[in-house]
Amino acid sequence: MDAVPITKKLIAFGSKKIYLPKFTVALMRTPRASPYHARFLVPLDFSKYDLRDYLFHAYSVKCFNIRSYVKQMPVRDTREQPRHWFRPESKKYMTVEMEQPFVWPEVPDLEPWGQKEKRQETEDAMRANGAVDSNDARDAARKLQDQVKKLLYKNVAQPDEAIEQKKKNKIELSSEEKDAEKLRQEREAKLSKMSRLKLWERERTEKLVNSNDRSRFAIKA
């Protein structure tokens, strides 16, 4: 018995007309999937029939063998309310098999349009609003630990590694390196006589308090 082509199969579609949809369907980039498969991020109340009707009536795309997957988000807290645990809303994904293949276009070069600057601005805004991840918190803690060690041991005037290597190998220093090493030694002598409080006041960065509400103090460098 010959197989019936996909285009000849009898498929029923819904008759409900939607002119101003209140939902959002996002096509996800899946480089490892085949050209005949597409993945969508859909609302939680979306069914397989809803997605099939939406793709057919909006884009004339026939799809079959729809698979759905609900991803449960991890439990987390916020900086504004620490130790107030909550679980964000889950995300629902659907993978469809299409009649015609679709290949994602190549990503263009976005550097001339300031992609790197835009990403940096977004990360700075997220850190200013308290939305930092574990890596950012770990880096901030490591930097604070280094600052505390410098102030505790008065180790602010760090020697130059290249100069120290030349001195270790008994290589004669240049005039610029001698002047730099002399200035460092003078600064180190001054630091040995300076109290840690004065050293902290000199080395600390200026801070600005963004709010007058004590419960929502946000100190920004």
TrEMBL record:
Region (Disordered): 164-188
Domain of life where this protein originates: Eukaryota
This protein's record includes keyword Glycoprotein: no
Molecular function via GO: structural constituent of ribosome
PANTHER family associated with the record: LARGE RIBOSOMAL SUBUNIT PROTEIN UL23M, RIBOSOMAL PROTEIN L23-RELATED
Family statement: Belongs to the universal ribosomal protein uL23 family.
GO biological process, one term: mitochondrial translation
Organism: Clathrospora elynae
Keyword Thylakoid included in the entry's annotation: no
The protein's name: Large ribosomal subunit protein uL23m
Alphabetized UniProt keyword annotations: Ribonucleoprotein, Ribosomal protein
GO cellular component term of the entry, any: mitochondrial large ribosomal subunit
SUPFAM superfamilies: Ribosomal proteins S24e, L23 and L15e (SSF54189)
Classification via InterPro entries: Nucleotide-bd_a/b_plait_sf, Ribosomal_uL23-like, Ribosomal_uL23/eL15/eS24_sf
Organism classification: Eukaryota, Fungi, Dikarya, Ascomycota, Pezizomycotina
